[in-house]
Amino acid sequence: CLVAWDQVCNTTDAGGLGIRHLDTQNTCLLIKLVHRLHQDTESSWAKWVKQHTDLATMEGDITGPHWEALRDLLPLYQAITTVQLGDGAATSFWYDVWLGDDCFADRFPALLSHCTRQNQSVGTIAMQGIVSTLQPRLTPQAQTELATVQDLLSSLQLTATPDRRHSHLMDGEGKLQTSALYALLQSPPNSQTEGHQLAWKNHAPPRVKFFAWLLTRKKIQCRSNLQKRGVLDDATCEVCGNGDENANHIIFSCSFASEFWSAIGFVVPADADVSHLDKLDRPAHIPSKHFSTLLLLCCWQLWKRRNGVIFRQEEATKQETLRLAREDARLWQGRLPRKNGCVADSLGGPFNFAI
Fold first, then answer.
1. How far apart (Å, rounded) are the C-alpha atoms in residues 157 and 86?
2. Rounded Cα gap, residues 308 and 322, in angstroms
3. Which of 4, 35, 49, 158 is deepest in the core (most CB within 10 A)?
4. In 3-state terms, what secondary structure has residue 77?
5. Among candidate residues 157, 153, 163, the one with its CA nearest the CA of residue 132
6. Angle at which helices 291-311 and 206-216 pack, to 10 degrees?
7. CB–CB of 9/16 below 8 Å?
């Protein structure tokens, strides 16, 4: 196991492999059942549930582990939906978003802390008033919030129609899109990692993309990583014998790698890092379109050459490596869009020039 499983299950945009996390997937599918209860559908199951439970809290006569699992998902469902009020019977007064952009629990926390019955629906509060659900004595902050809430309730008008749920995760027919919900749950905000665009947004073969994903995370099987695990006692590079063999050394610092990049016109800074491979400056003679594909081609050749030297005792020269890179470039051209034919022909240009 090179990378933690939670990271592997992240989407590719979040730096993962996009493998489905079964717990999250199961949550999304169960949420669809909760959504069915709150929609005006012909489902016999939904009609039966509505006869035995209060949809605002999902509390009632129904018991069992399956129902408990559904009820535990109610806060998540409330967080991804807003309510267009009808009769207010299926809408939680405190925890659903039915007026404004936030639920009342977030907008009036002081008043909520004085509430003894937080499981009331909007319809119940509109009928009985909110004061009956509060403790006798309120703090000054709670008194201020109470006045605001009572002012909002004074203009509240309910109808005889059922409440309607809305969400940006619903399609035009009102069905909840589990794929969008899964992406939201599996990829927290601002979870994008540097290099994910380089690893996946290119036209390299799939195994090369996977290699690039490991490389930008510095998780390739190099001597430095093996030493950390206690497999090896020494991490010195077997190719050049100068410095520890880690991801940066294999791609940039090794003497052969430096000569390789120089031969095709790259100026690699001394502090170059594979985690920021996409920040490597593009030489003027190389087209910008599909530059990421060319970068992966170079890294792939350096990786294959390193493995050949270590495991097969090959003596691949710089000229031989450049020739193999040119041949691979010719094969990879078939993976590029036909409309980019002129760019595709130039994919092997740097290697032709170096040879």
1. 9
2. 15
3. 35
4. helix
5. 153
6. 80
7. yes
Range from 58-67, 116-125, 318-327, 339-348 carrying the lowest mean pLDDT: 339-348
Average pLDDT over residues 129-156: 91
pLDDT at 238 over 70: yes
Bridge partners (DSSP) listed for residue 85 = none
Q: Minimal CA–CA distance to 285: which of 354, 337, 202?
A: 354
Q: Tell me, what's the pLDDT at 234?
A: 92
The SS3 assignment for 210 reads: helix
Q: Please write the tens of the pLDDT for every residue from 11-47.
A: 777 778 888 888 989 999 999 999 999 887 778 988 8
pTM over 0.70: no
Q: Single out the residue of 158, 156, 165, 167 nearest to residue 86, CA to CA.
A: 158
Whole-number Å distance between alpha carbons of 319 and 169: 55
Cα separation, 255 vs 177, in Å, equals: 52
Contacts of 325 (CB under 8 A, 6+ apart): 297, 298, 301, 348, 351
Mean per-residue pLDDT over the chain, rounded: 87
How many other CB atoms are found less than 10 A from the CB of residue 112? 18
3-state secondary structure of 81: coil
